[in-house]
Specification:
The protein is an alpha/beta fold. Helices cover about 35% and strands about 15% of the residues. It has an 8-stranded mixed beta sheet, with helices on both faces. It is globular. Bound molecules: 4'-deoxy-4'-aminopyridoxal-5'-phosphate (PMP).
């Protein structure tokens, strides 16, 4: 049953004010509701599974700040850790014990990780991992895949064309051709193209960088044998395999996509969940590679707020809860609950529910694509209609059909069932 149209007057007033001060009124582009109808909602507060906008409307939060909030908003133990940390000082610019606890937890959980370095965002993590891969191998070429997002550093801001290996043309103005000249973009899910590229340029390739569970152009789960192939081919040619686990890390399980698929990369990058909702990023790998970082080695990398004590305490606390309470098992059950309610109706409506644990994406096409070139762009308009109607029903989905949804541990089974039923009605 549809409710009367919600008032979003205060959000719209705030949005107009914000637009006078910040480009499109936002500090990250997708937030501006460019791909869906209406003005962006301004959020006044959040608790558990819910967001409240500035007009007092409540929404089940399926965006979860784009991934970090696996425990929902304001988990009591994470909040307590943050409060206690803040009282001890917000930043020192010197080492603190919380860094050790988070490092121990990340290293113990993730396969093949011997050393880790913390930074302040996912962008920084991948940018630094790429520099390290280049420094370690003494090579320049980076291979990435179209549809995979690795943050907005110059060298990685390339999506490239479909079908053939394309030397990078940046998808953003302001990136000089030289910055992407050593980035090669390939489509996902094609062993032959990778084999051919290595045959031609193998000695120049520093690293293959991939989201092992691509989640930035819809959700595009890869064949496990494809990931194993990437592991083998990089090893054969002395290139590094870099898994960007900024979304999948600690989301698919404590051991991320590496554990899920049984493929161990040389370097892995993290963000989101490991900061417990505070700004964070990290990259890590084998000792032999990581010791090339300054001050031990010749690859420079640094940060004023890196290893921030509040973020480290929040992250350590979140990982502690995830592990102690076996949260991933519960999230898998919630994911199944969503699938039970939604997969059938989606198929009837010509859509596909793509799901990996607590990550979901409604593909507006009958089959789940494995590469971005196979995503039917017309689905984005359909998604925009669903998005607006979902808001009316008190469900906050990410404001773009290219984005995935996240379930979180603050959600109850009944809420997820209802979410499934609501979306089933709207598609
Ligand atoms: N890598 C991946 C896989 C991401 O999804 C993102 C952001 N969503 C980033 C890197 C960049 O992270 P950040 O926005 O924290 O810079």
């Amino acid at each position: 049953m549809s409710r009367a149209k919600l008032s979003r007057e205060r959000s719209s007033t705030l949005y107009r004010r914000a637009c006078e001060l910040m480009p499109a009124g936002v500090n990250s582009p997708v937030r501006a509701f460019g791909a869906v109808p209406g003005d962006p909602l301004f959020i006044a507060r959040a608790d558990g599974a819910y967001l409240w906008d500035a007009d007092g409307n409540r929404y089940l939060d399926c965006c979860g700040s784009w991934g970090p909030l696996i425990l929902g908003h304001g988990h009591p133990r994470v909040l307590a850790a943050i409060e206690a940390a803040v009282r001890r000082g917000t930043t020192y610019g010197a080492p603190c014990e919380a860094e050790i606890e988070l490092a121990e937890r990340v290293i113990a959980a993730y396969p093949g990780l011997e050393l880790v370095r913390f930074v302040s965002s996912g962008t920084e993590a991948v940018m630094s991992a790429v520099r390290l891969a280049r420094g370690f191998t003494g090579r320049n070429l980076i291979v990435k895949f179209s549809g995979c997002y690795h943050g907005h550093s110059d060298a990685l801001l390339v999506s490239g064309g479909s079908g053939l290996a394309t030397f990078g043309v940046s998808s953003s103005a302001g990136v000089p051709p030289g910055a992407v000249a050593d980035t090669v973009v390939l489509p996902l899910d094609d062993e032959q193209l990778v084999t051919d590229l290595f045959a031609e340029r193998g000695p120049d390739i520093a690293a293959v960088v991939i989201e092992p569970l691509p989640a930035n152009a819809g959700l595009l789960p890869q064949r496990p044998e494809y990931l194993r192939f990437l592991r083998d081919v990089t090893r054969q040619h002395g290139a590094l395999l870099v898994f960007d686990e900024v979304i999948s890390g600690f989301r698919l399980g404590m051991d991320g996509a590496a554990g899920f698929y049984g493929v161990v990369p040389d370097l892995a990058t993290f963000g989101k969940i490991i900061g417990g909702g505070m700004p964070v990023g990290a990259f890590g790998g084998r000792r032999e590679i990581m010791t090339r970082l300054a001050p031990l080695g010749d690859v420079y990398q640094a940060g004023t707020l890196s290893g921030n004590p509040v973020a480290m305490s929040a992250g350590a606390s979140a990982l502690r809860v995830l592990q102690e309470q076996k949260v991933h098992e519960r999230l898998e059950e919630l994911g199944r609950t969503l699938a039970d309610a939604l997969a059938g109706p989606a198929a009837k409506a010509g859509c596909t529910l793509v799901r990996a644990g607590s990550i979901f994406w409604l593909a507006m096409q009958p089959e789940a694509p494995r590469r971005v070139e196979a995503v039917d762009g017309r689905g984005m308009q359909r998604y925009a209609v669903v998005h607006e109607a979902a808001l009316e029903q008190g469900v906050y989905l990410a404001p773009s059909g290219w984005e995935v949804g996240f379930l979180n541990a603050a959600m109850q089974a009944e809420e997820v069932q209802k979410l499934g039923a609501t979306l089933a009605e709207l598609i």
